[in-house]
Amino acid sequence: MDELTHIAFDAAPIGLVLTEHRVIRAVNTTFAAMAGYDAAALTGQSFRIFYDSAAEFAQVRDIGLEVLARDGAYCDERMLRRADGTRVWCRFRARSLTPAEPLARTVLSFAPIDRTAQGPALTPRERDVLQYLSRGLTSKEIAQSLGLSPRTIEDVRARLLRKFDVPNAARLLARLGQSG
Q: CA 42 from chain center: how many Å?
């Protein structure tokens, strides 16, 4: 990478990551700061460090994989677990550089979603549930992932629908996508 390209990559206003088979090959300082790590310490690490368990890491791999394979690009909103265990809500985008094998080499971007954006304030639990809803999981699947009862997830979903004055989860996600 020439000097100007390297400067542009490193100074980009969003977090950028180059991965090969979900192993980090390069990150910019924006991503490193967002994740709470030193950029050099991330190089060579598996993306597994950003997940609570190997099962979650494996599950997330498959989210959007079909779209990435078909279109070469995928985006959603998700939580990024920082080095200190806190989480930041991000708009995530992925572009495969190897369409025949989508995860062989990908460029990822992470843009924090401003918590002061218009709309009701969300609790950490509501953000967790929204993260899983945005991935198409059912209340039962979300409950299993979070170690809660399906009834608790249904209560959180109902609270979200009331907060955003929408009739169902599809409209909730559409509204959040428009305002996010």
A: 17
Residue pair 15/34 in contact (Cβ under 8 Å)? The answer is yes
Residues in the chain: 180
124-179 to CATH, choices 3.90.1150.10, 3.65.10.20, 1.10.150.20, 1.10.10.10: 1.10.10.10
- 90 burial type by CB count under 10 A (0-12 exposed, 13-18 middle, 19+ buried): buried
pLDDT tens by residue, 125-150 = 998 899 898 888 899 999 999 999 99
pTM: 0.66
DSSP letter for 113, please.
P
Quick one: which of 68, 83, 70, 55 has its CA closest to 144? 55
